[in-house]
Design goal:
This protein is of the alpha+beta class and 454 residues long. The chain is 37% helix and 12% strand. Strand 2 and strand 3 form a beta hairpin.
């Protein structure tokens, strides 16, 4: 199938089962189509490899192998792979269809996310990655384009099984520039990737969610790669008021250049993130802003991801414990993700976990009155910074005024030693006598006065 008749793929039936309905998107590895599973009467996503890539037999074999591995992943925060096959020489994948937008779409729309949004998405992403890492699987291409936000509230990591093949001598130009923004230093310098490389990519993505920008940018991919290998990721709070000291530390910990000092897998990071959520961010949050038109969905009974009217609420605030060392075993890790009893997964935790947190919050109610949540601390810090900014503005204005007065005094004013002012002689005819007063004595010259009119 040549590029000239690529659209003829639409309308075909693959393996006497999958009817191709419409084209959804085109990426560096292949084209994604909306399809229908005729046997099970459900919508599916079909990703077909680009025809010009099928001549690389090693690439095709790698594509097939990785697809088989991805099909073994079964997690509510992972886009599931249902089937794999060939249409002539073109390999294709049949995947779960997730109607909605990507995290990249949300960042374009909103520029930067709130702390609540970033934490909710992060928990879902880490849940999916933790399941993959426990199964011995590495994503290798974690980025906002591969994070799917479904209309019904689910948050899923996609393109498992495609990343390794797509990143092997096939990614060039702008696609490479977009991918390299999330590559770990060890992958850039040594070409070696493990679960810690996915952790690094997550940390970069968390930074971008909080700030609306990537930490390292350049016109050429080699410039970005050099910065990843030789520079530390800055604190998000330097340019975003959404970040807190806890989130700054989470970004720093997950993006350490030395992989030996980084968390060993996503499960460790997930355990730490849930400590933050249990400590100060227990209430429901909202991922999509009010301007987005999308249906409402309740996740695990506590979190509304796509609610038009729900506002962000804060749970019982507590102090956040210090971060665990990377080598410490996860306190709440596992591959099970955060699926609730209704089977819908997202950024919230299960109903049972939410109930447990509510009980803990009630027990801590008295102590919590004397403490501030991370969000309140962030707001208080922002108010203090604004107040300090106003004071500094007044000080600068006062100093500028003093400098202007001094410059005038010694430049054009009486303080200039080189300036000679004329002395005015008294008029011959004195004015009519006035009551006697004592005139003040002036030393030096006096200002010139206009002549008295007759």
């Amino acid at each position: 199938m040549s590029s000239s008749n690529r659209d003829q793929f639409i309308g075909r039936t693959l393996d006497s089962r999958y009817r191709v309905r419409a084209k959804i998107a085109r990426g560096g590895m292949g084209t994604v189509y909306l399809g229908e599973d005729l046997r099970l009467s459900r919508k599916v996503a079909i990703k077909a490899m680009h025809p010009h890539m099928v001549d690389d037999e090693a690439l095709v074999r790698r594509f097939e192998k990785e697809a088989h591995a991805a099909a073994r992943l079964n997690n509510p925060n992972v886009v599931n792979v249902h089937d794999q096959g060939f249409d002539g020489e073109i390999p294709y994948l049949v995947m779960e269809y997730v109607p909605g937008i990507t995290l990249r779409d949300l960042l374009k729309r909103q520029k930067r996310l709130t702390a609540d949004q970033a934490l909710e998405i992060s928990e879902a992403v880490l849940s999916g990655l933790a399941a993959a890492h426990q199964a011995g699987f590495i994503h290798r291409d974690v980025k906002p384009e591969n994070i799917f936000l479904a209309n019904d509230g689910r948050i899923k990591v996609g393109d498992f099984g495609l990343a390794r093949a797509a990143n092997t001598n096939t990614t060039t130009g702008q696609a490479l520039l977009g991918t390299i923004a999330y590559l770990s230093p060890e992958l850039i310098t040594r070409g070696v990737a493990d679960a810690r490389s996915d952790v690094y990519a997550f940390g970069i993505m968390l930074y971008e969610m909080l700030t609306g920008t990537q930490p390292f940018r350049g016109e050429q991919a080699v410039q970005v790669a050099y910065m990843h290998a030789n520079q530390d990721v800055p604190k998000p709070s330097l340019i975003s008021r959404e970040s807190t000291p806890e989130l700054d530390e989470l970004v720093r910990w997950t993006t350490l250049r030395d992989p030996e000092r980084r968390p060993r897998d996503a499960a460790v990071v997930l355990a730490r993130l849930r400590q933050l959520l249990n400590g100060g961010l227990e209430a429901g949050t909202k991922v999509i802003s009010d301007t987005a038109a999308a249906p409402t969905s309740v996740i695990a009974g506590t979190t509304k991801v796509l609610d038009q009217n729900t506002t962000v609420q804060q749970g019982s605030p507590t102090q956040t414990p210090p971060p665990q060392a990377p080598s410490q075993p996860p306190a709440a890790a596992g591959a099970g993700g955060v699926a609730g009893a209704n089977g819908i997964a997202g950024a919230g935790v299960a109903t049972g976990a939410a109930s447990q947190r509510s009980q803990q919050a009630a027990q801590r109610a008295d102590a919590a009155k004397q403490r501030l949540s991370p969000i309140e601390v962030s707001q208080l810090g922002a108010e203090k910074r604004a107040k300090r900014g106003k004071i500094m503005t007044l000080v600068i204005i006062a100093l500028a005024t003093i400098v202007a007065i001094v410059a005038w005094w010694f430049g054009q004013g009486p303080g200039n030693p080189n300036k000679q002012l004329p002395i005015v002689s008294q008029p011959a005819a004195a004015a009519p006598a006035a009551p006697a007063t004592t005139a003040p004595a002036f030393s030096g010259a006096v200002a010139q006065l206009p002549a008295a009119s007759a």
